[in-house]
Design brief:
By secondary structure, the chain is mainly alpha-helical. The chain has five helices and no strands. It has one domain. Helix content is 66%, strand content 0%.
Length: 106
């Protein structure tokens, strides 16, 4: 996959992630390009966005509301966390299923 395709796919995943504003800015493109340059696999980026989304959405009902995510860089620490986790893909599939059930309820 070349850098243009990688950046496009990362930005598509970011834009679709729950809690994001949906807008893509120049710094978001630059961050995605840095991920490509670092050799971060696309699956790691996808899994990190799923993990961060799950953490934000599966909070206690009485927790204060969280603000809108306005930058792909917000996910940087979670991307680094997922790189070091070594978690099985099944864990992220479980999170995706929980998020899907949550969307169905709303």
């Amino acid at each position: 996959m070349d850098s243009l395709e990688y950046v496009g796919r990362v930005l598509d995943v970011y834009r679709a992630a729950p809690g994001t504003c949906g807008a893509i800015r120049k710094p978001d493109r630059a961050f995605a390009l840095r991920l490509y340059a670092r050799g971060v696999p696309l699956t790691v980026v996808e899994n990190a966005l799923v993990l961060a989304s799950a953490r934000r959405l599966l909070r206690s009902d009485d927790a204060p509301p969280l603000g809108m995510i306005r930058s792909l860089a917000y996910f940087g620490p979670v991307i680094d966390e997922v790189l070091g986790l070594g978690a099985a893909e099944g864990y992220f599939q479980h999170l995706r299923a929980r998020l899907a059930r949550l969307r169905e309820k709303r």
